[in-house]
């Protein structure tokens, strides 16, 4: 990959010339200009913020060591390779769960799997962020790849639905880690003005693979009774092999930075933070070291948060199958204990945790506005998305290849337009207008989804997904830019993780609601339209497998049952999508310049290797 126009040097703290002309223009336009000129940007002296963690120090030192040379170019090429193979993995395996569970006659459990996976995808980023900050980015990435491979292997060899669920849990941890750390690496080394474009460019492989994946799924017969096993299994080998170059490059650079004794360039420390931490742990017993890391990683908070969300949300997916519904003593106990654990987590994280998952210092107006925008975005999306693919499979008579193409429409729209909007943000140096535009476009798409419950034509279905995809291409990255602009580099990982956490909480809640509606409404409507032709056992078989539902006659009555079942969810998704627009309107319209964020003076500029070597020579004792 050719070097990006992002020039970076996180050790350069000199202020650039002021932008008086831009300031005057922005004032005339009524735009937020407080963070635009460097002379107005708050200065963070060494004592003004928290002590910089080792992972942040090491990533800054790594890019000083690399400079403009083979290491940097190899890193970008490796990130591109990861993006390509990972996108192919996501586009082919994302829909296998419905067919894996149907193979065991347990399709109804797909909602529970979705909720559990969404909870994991939310609670994992904070702990991953702490690992990346506390140790290093490459070591955290190694752990994520390992979990990914183990989880896919479990799914591929599953002999019962319980193993499928367990495999989904493990590889969701890996998936989340790879996605989060890849985006974190990009945020570490790009300036605000280029970050959206780089994210968009890295995601372009999704556009190509959206079409390639259809042929792969068709050739391995991925939607057949056992074809999905090969679909999972092939990536147990492919992804670890393709991630290896990036890990090697990062580990070499990390070792060089540590060997040369690179200082914490943007922090107050005069020696590497990881060396200071090593001194701190010298002479400690194994138990003391374990307790030290448990405290730094906030393990107690992690378990309280995980179990709280799981116990509160999972009963919503089980109430239609549990005897007595919500009156079932087990479900009542789960809800009560979950509520108590949630309160305990809120108290612990807010008042007692030394290293909380949601530190108060990251909460500002823009952070909260973007967090709420993403929360409602994912909440409204997953009211539909939880069962949308299964619903479409039943009501539309497409081939497996074309069904796969349709499922990837949103992905193509999101990734195909992201880099274009990234360029627009680069040259306008603003993000807020694009964020609002994307959210509005996405609401129009939600309206077409609601229309499809009445008139499910191919044109309406495809157009709805295209509009949602284009809206997502700009609104999601704009939320990330808003959050990352509003915090210093030290808090980048945890702020991004908190954003992911509440986005996943939103999707978890809506997945639980959609599972509850699906598990109640579909059987009721099947009884309404097919009750005179099929007995209760036969209807349960139809409901338990989308294979069977698609083949059941009379076809028009089956389709009508599924159409009417989803209509309330589609309407709720349309209404709640407007909440994102309202929340985003309160974010500050930060200037996207050549700095790492809008509140520090860390200018992003890669220098020549010779210049780097000269500075390293001067820094050696």
TrEMBL record:
Residues 19-28 have a biased composition (Basic and acidic residues). It is found in: Membrane. The lineage of its organism: Eukaryota, Fungi, Dikarya, Basidiomycota, Agaricomycotina. One of its GO terms (biological process) is monoatomic ion transport. This is Siderophore-iron transporter Str3. Belongs to the major facilitator superfamily. Residues 18-52 are annotated as: Disordered. GO terms for molecular function: transmembrane transporter activity. Keywords: Ion transport, Membrane, Transmembrane, Transmembrane helix, Transport. Signal peptide: none annotated.
